[in-house]
Structure formats: C-alpha cells, structure tokens
Amino acid sequence: MRRLLLLGVTALCLCVFVAADTQHDRQGDKSLPEKDGVLQLKKGNFNRALRKHKQLLVHFYTPLSGDGHRVSAAFEGAAAELQESEVKLAVVDVAKEKDLAKDLNATGPPTIRLYLAGDKHNPVPCPVPQSSASILTWLKRRAGSAADLITELSQIEASEELTVVGFFKEQDHEYVQVFYSAAIELPDVHFALTQNSEVISKYGLTHDVVLLLKKSKLIQAYKMMPQTSKEELIVFITVYQMDPVTEYTGKVEY
Ligand SMILES: *[C@@H]1O[C@H](CO)[C@@H](O)[C@H](O)[C@H]1NC(C)=O
C-alpha cells in the first residue's frame, strides 16, 4: 500500500514537472506562434515579431483567393528552403486580421513584403513570385551585388533560357547598378554580366549594352544611356520575354 502511495506521489510529481514544462513551452509559443517554421502573426504579436527579427518576410494572404494560391504555394516552398536562413518568414491572414492589414497598409498588393530592422513603414515589396525559386532569387539578389552575376560567356551561350546579358566598360559604372536593380525586380529572368567581348565584336556593337541571348542567338540589344532608368530596362526585357520568337534584326534600340 505504502509502495503504491509512493508510486502515486512520484507519478504526481512527474506530472507536475511535465505540466510546468509544457506551460513554459506554451508561453514561449504564445509570444510568437509558429507552424512549420513560419510565424503566424496577428495584431497582438506583429510588433513583437518585427522587433525580434531583423529580416522578416511576411506573406499577407487571403485564404481561397484564386491567384493567391500560387503565391501561397511559392511562399511555403521558400519557407521550407529558408529554415536555416537569417530571414524569418511569417504569414498574416488578411481576412481575419483586417485591422492589422489596414494599419500596415497591406490591404492590396504586393502580398509579400520584407520588413528590415524593425521598420514597419518601409517594407521592401517582393515581386509577385511565379515559384518558390522566385522568392529565393529575389532575396539572394537583393542581399548581393552585381558581381554575383559575373558569368562565363560560354555558360550563357549554352543556356536554354533567355538570358539578359550586360556588357559594360566599367564594372563600377552606374549602368551596372541600373542593370542590377532590374535583376532584383525580375527574379524569374536569368541575368549575367560578362566582360568577354566576343559577342560585342561579332555583332559590331559597342560596350554598355544589354543583350537578350537565347542559345547563343541574339534576340535584341539595348544600348544603355545616361538617362536609362531601371523601369525602362525592365520594360525592354519583359516585352521580349513575352515574345520569345522575335529574333534579332540587326537594329539596336539606341
Ligand atoms: C499607412 O498609410 C498612412 C497614410 O498614407 C500613413 O500615415 C501610415 O504611416 C502608413 N502605415 C504604415 C505602417 O506605413
């Protein structure tokens, strides 16, 4: 009997210990609930998450919205890849968290925003991703530099994909910055920088030109000018990206 009682008391103690432990865990969870490594944010914990994570990538989603489904899938895929990264991922259900979405001016697109250094007011909008790779490439390009794009010409020419290739006289020129900022905005497009002048001389071009190449075929060329903006370059690229059958006619868009 006594032994049974002792056993009972021990079991009770154990239970209390376990309960205390889960209680502790639950409190930790309660401050910032997570699912598969993704923070589930709402009005009550958004600011805390912002303070805690220097880079917070937030997907403002509406369940059951048509286009949103692909973006959600892309975000989930990226979240799986970014488990060990410095970027913390989070979601906000906009249908439930109407007040929060309104406070953050997150009622419309873009639905994915990167909050940096706890700044609630100036998130960096992530371009609408086609896939999880878009998000990963965007983060990588955003955090990197133009030098990351330097590639061998032979590699570019072997690629099946349409590649935007920049040839610049000076690698630290403003043109390179414009080129790189376009690359950040178009994470689904291959970008490369090369200093190999073969193509340039082959087509009788001069430097500071952006070429669209596909399987070593020149699709179009765009001459960079001092006034060329990132936006203009993006328009040039996206027009030809949508119409990939167009081939180079020998005319350079000066
Ligand atoms: C949302 O927009 C309003 C008006 O433009 C602005 O006052 C407010 O600071 C914005 N909120 C955030 C979080 O940026």
UniProtKB/TrEMBL annotation:
GO terms for biological process: protein folding; response to endoplasmic reticulum stress. One of its GO terms (cellular component) is endoplasmic reticulum. CDD domains: PDI_a_family, PDI_b_family. SUPFAM superfamilies: Thioredoxin-like. InterPro entries: Thioredoxin-like_sf, Thioredoxin_domain. Keywords: Signal. Pfam families: Thioredoxin, Thioredoxin_6. PANTHER family: PROTEIN DISULFIDE ISOMERASE (PTHR18929), PROTEIN DISULFIDE-ISOMERASE-LIKE PROTEIN OF THE TESTIS (PTHR18929:SF58). Belongs to the protein disulfide isomerase family. This is Protein disulfide-isomerase-like protein. It comes from Lates japonicus (Japanese lates).
